[in-house]
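Problem 3 from the worked examples.
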Amino acid sequence: MGGDTKSLNSPLIYSTEESSFEQKFPENPLGSPTFLSGGDCLGAKGENGEVGLGSVDLEEFVRASSNMMEEVHKKRIRNVYMDVLKSYEELQFHKDHLEEAKNKILSYTPGSRIEEVSGMKVSDYNIPKKTTLLLIGPRGSGKSSLVNKISRLFDDDPFTPERAQVSYSSNGDGTYFLQEYAIPRGSSSFCLYDTRGLSADLSENKKMVKRWMRKGVCHGKRITRDSDDAHLKSKGRNRYRATETNVVNFLIFVVSGVQILQLMDTDDETKRQQTQAIATTFNNPLLSFKDEKPVVVLTHGDLLSLSDRTRIRMYLGQLLGIHPKKQIFDIPESDDLGTRFTILNMLCYCLEHADKNLPFKRNLPYKSPSSSKGVLKLLVSSLLIHAVLVIIFGMGMIFMNTLQAKVASVPNLHVSQSHGDIDCNATTVDSVPDLQPEELQPHVNVDCHASGVDSVRDLQPETPQSDVNVDWRTIRHLWSDD
């Protein structure tokens, strides 16, 4: 695919591959004499002919196990290398599916790749109006060239001018303003954002990335650093007006294959630090979406041999902690069918993982794994509680009505005695409640020394009393004395 037309059966490729990864693996590591023979080794025979543990040399056993694991690790690396190498030839077999992959991208809408799992629905996610893919990478890595290549793939017009300004000189200004490019042109489904190249200062890169990931990106916004001179800080200050801000949904980390190869094959400490700077920026937690790290696009591969491009992908996979075949996409400058299919495959990966990691809406109600059963149980429990409360309230009302009826049937003053003595020394008769004697009294003596007769009330029995003798002369006399 671009830059190297030799087939996989080429002696050059296999000679290079064998020279770098040729390993001699024993056919039966566990069947070597170290393990299965000798008097002081594991599995030695005793005097009676039975197989036993014997006197195991622990240090030798650990050394042999370590060597075995090292050989297994080397063999795994060799298999991955061969898998990546063969992937270039496999691209030629996918050219018939190019239009199908292209239509899949054209039919994309934000949120269309969401998987409804664990009871979640599309409506439970905060879906953006437009999916935003952010391109970041060192200066000269080919971000703007990648934008033009992607845009040209969907324009289907070879005479369409390039949309992004590309600097082909190390003295070029590069990108200083955030630029939004709708893909395809005029579409509102997703867009690419071209950015300024990363700096050699890690603190400046971290600050810049933090601003993009937390505050979003805005078309035409100037990108400045603290280390910029006065000319750069004043460049185009009032040229653009701010537009709406887009939240970044996924990232594409762009690196130049030529630059990485130079960093790989040198012992210069300064270049080694540049390599670590790339790894540190890439592994910034702000660039990851949950467990998903950005994809890596390898550019300028057409200037290298196929074996070198494979080695670079292996190196980046180990340096960045990603799979060299599944998450590193080699997109050279050449415009062949293999390159086009790689671009579409890369975009499919980005859009799918952007939808996969969309945030949930705020104040989203909790849904249990068995939501329908849980709601039914909650409803039944609520009905039972209300029924019990109604029964208790009804029983209380019946008891209160019965008690009031019994109280109403009892008269205020029931005098059944033949004689009664009433002492009226109190100021008012109301202060003496319930004048109902428990035992029959032979006489009732009324002493009316109270201050007023009006204070004596309700002394009229419900039934006439025959044996009650009241001396009214005495009462009249007492009243005149007062």
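Problem 4, a separate protein:
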Amino acid sequence: MYSHFLLVQIKKKDNYHDGKEMRRQELTSADREVLLKLGRLAFEHLQKKNILFYQEDLEQCGLDVTEASVYSGVCTEIFRRESVIFQKPVYCFVHLSIQEFLAAVYMFHCYTNRKTEELKDFFSEDISSLDDFLSRAMEEFLLIPNSHLELFVRFLHGLSMKSNQRLLGGLLGQTESSPEIIQRAIKNLKQIKIDDKCPDRCINIFHCLMEMKDLSVHQEIQEFLKSQNKSKKKLSGIQCTALAHMLQMSEEVLDELDLEKYNTSQEGRWRLIPAMVNCRKARLYDVFVFGLSCGALALALTSDPSHLRELRLSSVSLEKYAEELFTHLGHPNCRLETLSFENSTLSENNCAALLSALKSNPPYLKRLDLIRCNLEGSGMKQLYGYLESPHCKLQFNRVTLV
């Protein structure tokens, strides 16, 4: 779609200058030069999270802002100039996705033309093959906190397909995208280890598979959802990611998500966490809630609207991120009514963070359960002291360890 968009804009440019309808599809050398300069601008500023540029930024990428080609044809629709009162002119792409697409085109061109210095701006090591190029791009995306490169990486995988390469003519350069290499890239996506990466961002792996026209995981999960005995099916990590995405996107709100009921690994359960955003009751079982995974929990508690009414954390370790999680109980969108801990350990800091959150009187929270939990340090006494005091309006259920 984006490749066709570029071709349409080039045709508009040619029609404007020649006064007649153009029937060709090929890019001229002048077209390629301008697009690659725009791609360089897009990539360099995407890395910096910049969406606005100044004249000197364009000139550093070899773009002459006085040339008609910058404003007509491709650049008229892709790029616009905005006047800011009492400031110098500001430029931007008409949509962030256009910037991300052109950045991907430029980076793919750099790979096929072995521009090693440009590649080093993004990759920490040398690239050996197309499947290595794509795998490293995904790894870099997953490493960056709050990554802004989701569509960029997805576009890279889409550009590896011959059908998309043909549309852009010689802009991308010669690629070695044989069926064997494409299958290796697909296999790499399915087997990638996410470790402590954000489970929400891992859904981009599934999108990249779709960009490469691999529908196998999507079909497997559709069959899983139709299955009468789901507990017998062992789910891989990528299948859990696909399932989480499908449940998350479903128009029907899931009544309950219990991670213990899924036959998968601890990593697989962790990948299912994003589905919480579209369910009323959620039970997290035997997972570590840390780092970026808190973002998926936060989204479930604070999305608009938030469907989550009951959250049970069973055999869960919160480590040092409890305070970040508990603060969301007071968020205006949070509608959580029951919070339950089962067979879990709450450190002294965890207890203090929970106590602070409870004292802020979350408007919808009615019940707190601490079932066979280990509460450490003086925080335990303070937490229990508050819960058992007349000031606390919560229904409190405490089952101690035997």
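Solution to problem 4. The chain has a mean pLDDT of 83. The chain is about 50% helix and 10% strand.
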